[in-house]
């Protein structure tokens, strides 16, 4: 199933707002989180907000193309929903020749300010995502990858624009609600228009 759906992933910008320096035209940014219940191997809680008839993008707490099969949760959600999606992971997935090596650690050390990034390239040379220092306050990067209908460079710019802290605000907010009792809250945050 993943291999079939992987063929439908669009790895480029498809929406007008994606080419605007301040994302003009983008009205909502949604967050999604999938939380597993400790000790329960069957059930999970997923949080997602979708607004009809508005330009939106969904941040997924997890990976997109930066995945074993180049088809993580952000790709799956994007292809099935038809929405632009961005995968943002807090931990490095060691996959396709990308490892937590000395070289990787030195690249992280070279990220001096919020917005600095470096590519995460597979052994084949294909860029699967980017490590991003999301804010000046955080020295640990997040790992940004294409989910669907967005380029990696736009995904990185958008992620940086939504970060007050290390994790983009839509993911940070939805995680707060899913991890506080798994009681069914969802959230979407309006995008602040700002030049990057």
From TrEMBL:
<dbReference type="GO" id="GO:0006281">
    <property type="term" value="P:DNA repair"/>
</dbReference>
<dbReference type="GO" id="GO:0005737">
    <property type="term" value="C:cytoplasm"/>
</dbReference>
<protein>
    <recommendedName>
        <fullName>Endonuclease V</fullName>
    </recommendedName>
</protein>
<dbReference type="GO" id="GO:0005730">
    <property type="term" value="C:nucleolus"/>
</dbReference>
<keyword id="KW-0378">Hydrolase</keyword>
<dbReference type="Pfam" id="PF04493">
    <property type="entry name" value="Endonuclease_5"/>
</dbReference>
<keyword id="KW-0540">Nuclease</keyword>
<keyword id="KW-0963">Cytoplasm</keyword>
<keyword id="KW-0255">Endonuclease</keyword>
<dbReference type="GO" id="GO:0016891">
    <property type="term" value="F:RNA endonuclease activity producing 5'-phosphomonoesters, hydrolytic mechanism"/>
</dbReference>
<dbReference type="InterPro" id="IPR007581">
    <property type="entry name" value="Endonuclease-V"/>
</dbReference>
<dbReference type="GO" id="GO:0003727">
    <property type="term" value="F:single-stranded RNA binding"/>
</dbReference>
